[in-house]
Amino acid sequence: MLSKKIEKALNEQIELEGSSSQYYLAMASWAETQGMNGIAQFLFTHADEERLHMLKLIKFVNERGGHGVVPTLKAPPKTFKSVQAIFELVLEHEILVSNEINKLVETCLKERDYTTHNFLQWYVSEQIEEEALARRILDKLKLIGGEKGGLYLFDRDLETMAAAESAAADKQA
Questions:
Q1: Is residue 69 within 8 Å of 13, Cβ to Cβ?
Q2: Which of 10, 50, 83, 150 could form a disulfide with 20 if both were Cys (CB 3.0 to 4.6 A apart)?
Q3: Among 16, 28, 41, 44, which residue's Cα sits nearest to residue 78?
């Protein structure tokens, strides 16, 4: 059984994961309208991934006797300055999510809720991967600079990466 404090904290994380999904979905839509289909596909895949993170939390809360609340989400931005700006926002956002997961873990330890603490370790590991991926992408964009040919190849690389991630997710399902 979840304490009310843990249930409230998990529902706040559910909202953050849902917002993350919407945020990446908005980025993906913008990239697609700019003709960057690989970047769009990569971001659409990550929007789906964030939604699955939210669903995993909802199911966990419900299984532990709480009530996973489906959040009302604020509308994300519709346009973005550049691809570079998008991935800078992605990294900034993933750092925010990591910090919130860490706070949640700390709350679990204070409340002596070791079951939820154990469950959250998957999210801790996932955030390490998400931040590292965003940093690698930003490193590639810095190498490209403003070169259009480099951006074209980058777009194709992300399309390949998105296809590989999607195939891996299908195997797990």
A1: no
A2: 50
A3: 28
